[in-house]
Design brief:
2 domains; 33% helix; seven-stranded mixed sheet; FAD/NAD(P)-binding domain; FAD-bd; five-stranded parallel sheet; monooxygenase activity; 12 helices; monooxygenase; D-Amino Acid Oxidase, Chain A, domain 2
């Protein structure tokens, strides 16, 4: 009999899982996404795709598309202090070593927008239900199918996978621990036409073919990240009260730019120049996370992947990579244990709890290091 699977959320985890599972004809896969269309909202900046996540994309049948969009040359890391003095420069050819890949190809960069597009394009038409807001997910009794309520309708599925991010509708059916505020918020902006602006104001000391980290330690962190299309993403992370991201009065681009400049007022003038060169689409947001070590009793018709399972801040670059690997592992378990779905979910979640705990602990440790005294010295010691 054909099993009906619902995936809530068309992010990297949900789409990778859908592409892997549709290869099996005895699985009927449906993806529910609240966005009206694929370009409804920005997808964020570039990310480096680790070897295990590349294997997940290979299993999903999209590795060739990944290879077309991946940028193997954009793997430099530069560490500056807030006065723009350079402390570390890790070039791709010497700074990355992995026995499974060539040194300059083990963690290629890719734009999140490109990743989402080719994952969507690989799915047959009709698999993704765009503009569909899931109102509620419920399970009447342990072992019964799960029911999704949306658009005034409800449908039952043999398995519902929550790939619906930080504020998942599925997660509360597994445990009652909500995301909490990490203590850090950020500004996010885009510096487009970077080569033109580079000619107008010299950014050579702060731009690189990869990511520049400006560590002001207790005064915050700036990240300048190369993306495709002659664009750099710029983030400024600061320790702020949770309500800061919702405060009125600094929503307009000019007000946000002024607030960013004020927050780095005693930093290098070169970094002020970067902020002044940003395009007008500047945002502010609070960073939320789940605590590491969460566990729950597995249910046969409900599970979670990605941020719905292991929400974390970006301070270790693990979020999307872990999401793709989780999708791969869940698909493997479902296929290996087709006759026993509870065993499949248990197999996946046992692995997931351990893997997520490791990555989330690393991310929290990095956040504490980046935002406190001694960060530059610790990173230099780590590199050495």
């Amino acid at each position: 009999m054909t099993k009906k699977l619902a995936i809530i959320g068309a992010g990297p985890a949900g789409l990778c899982l859908a592409n892997t599972l549709i290869q099996h004809t005895d699985l009927d896969v449906q993806v529910f996404e609240r966005d009206a269309h694929i370009n409804a909202k920005p997808q964020g900046g570039s990310l480096d795709v680790h070897v295990e996540a590349q294997e997940a994309l290979r299993a999903a049948g999209v590795y060739e598309q990944f290879a077309l969009h991946a940028r193997c040359g954009d793997q430099e890391d530069v560490i500056l202090d807030k006065h723009a003095s350079k402390h570390v420069h890790m070039r791709a050819e010497s700074g990355y070593k992995n026995e499974n890949e060539n040194n300059n190809k083990n963690k290629p960069e890719i734009d999140r927008t490109a990743l989402r597009h080719f994952l969507c394009d690989a799915l047959p038409e009709g698999v993704i239900r765009w503009d569909t807001k899931v109102d509620k997910v419920e399970q009447a009794t342990q072992g019964s199918p799960a029911t999704i309520h949306f658009d005034g309708n409800k449908h039952s599925f043999d398995l519902v996978v929550g790939a619906d991010g930080a504020w998942s509708k599925v997660r509360p059916l597994l445990h009652t621990i909500p995301p909490f505020y990490s203590g850090v918020s950020c500004y996010e902006g885009n510096l487009r036409d970077a080569s033109v602006k580079q000619a107008q104001e010299d950014f050579s000391d702060v731009f690189c073919n990869g990511t520049t980290f400006i560590l002001a330690e207790t005064d915050g962190l700036m990240v300048i990240q190369k993306n495709s299309g002659d664009c750099y993403k710029v983030y400024v992370y600061k320790s702020k009260p949770e309500a800061w991201a919702r405060e009125a009065g600094i929503e307009e681009p000019s007000a946000l730019r002024a607030a960013m400049l004020d927050d780095i007022k005693d930093w290098s003038p070169k970094l002020h120049g970067v902020v002044r060169a940003l395009n007008i689409d500047i945002f502010k947001r609070a960073m939320y996370m789940l605590p590491s070590g969460i566990m729950w009793e597995s249910k046969p018709s409900i599970t979670v992947v990605g941020d719905a399972a292991s929400l974390q801040t970006p301070f270790a670059g693990q979020g999307v990579n872990l999401a793709l690997i989780q999708a791969h592992k869940l698909a493997q378990s479902l296929v290996s244990h087709k006759e026993n779905q509870l065993l499949a979910v248990q197999d996946y979640e046992k692995w997931m709890h351990d893997e997520a705990n490791s990555k989330m602990t690393l991310t929290w440790t990095n956040l504490q290091m980046f935002m406190n005294k001694g960060a530059i010295a610790k990173l230099k010691q780590f590199v050495a």
